[in-house]
Design goal:
By secondary structure, the chain is mainly alpha-helical. Helices cover 64% and strands 10% of the residues. Helix 5 packs antiparallel against helix 6 (166-200).
Length: 345
Amino acid sequence: MFSLPAYELTGLFLETYFYGVNSISFAFCLHSLLTTAGRRRSREEINWIMLTIGCTLFFVASLDMFLTFTRCLQAFIFYDGPGGPAAVFSDLGYWITLTTSFTTLFQTVIGDGVLIYRCWIVYSRSWRVIIISILLWIGAAISMTLIIQIQANLHTSGTVTAAKLQPPNRSFWIISIIQNVLTTTLIVGRIRHVDRENSRFSFHDTNSRRKSDLKKVMRRIIESGLLYTLAVTVTFITYACGSNALYVTSKALKQIVVIAFNLIIIRASKSSPNEYTIASTGPMELQITSTTTGIGASSSITAPVQLIISRDVRHDGYSFASMEATEERKADLHSNSNLSDIKTP
């Protein structure tokens, strides 16, 4: 069984590794958010919500990295009092220990909030769909507040798995896992439904081709969701077992939250703007034939009709396409396909 200082050093090593991955992915994320097609985006083109969230997550991850390194310096270099390095790491009320605990919880809450926001966008800004996710998110935020409040008032030495911290911590991690699984399932289910509906209203001719492959989007969401959910689950397991390995898993989690956020934006930016739409280079001509049958005679008239499909696609933070335009496109196609109402001269 490793000592508390050994777990702290291992956690610092692992966090340093993931921070390097985080820094590189953040640079590519900024490039995706600030540029497009080899040029800089205008102020109107920039998704300020995603940019603000991305910068906030990276700043908090950088702050935690700095504080963890500072505490290791204090414990192993500058502190020469009783108890040695373990006394520094076990002081739960110390401001650095308190701040690093807050950053772990804060990163998780923000990551969950981004997931809910994307679900809200995918369901055309429907609050009814995400109401359960929002309630779970609020519960996690309340648990986070209780954890920090209790830890700040602890004036004895111990670890973050102390008995007084158990109830709110268990509640926080369980709520986070449930919220992740629920919201990710909702997003994937919606994208799958839209993909099936799109296949019913797709035209294939010499002037148009269907580039949509929403299964790729589903795979990206599932992969990033699994990465994040797996990190949260492992962190909860180490906490539930009362193991000091929590100091290792929680430090990796702080960086993985940001990495998962960045990866969705980076991978989606590699897609062409029309990947999830029906792309048309011009109007399509349909031949409409009207036949009139009378007593002893019949006649038919054939006339060309131009069918033009317009599209309006909105993107959520360059993560994945919004589904808002789909319902409108389905309605347009349904009205245009009612050939019995078309009158020829």
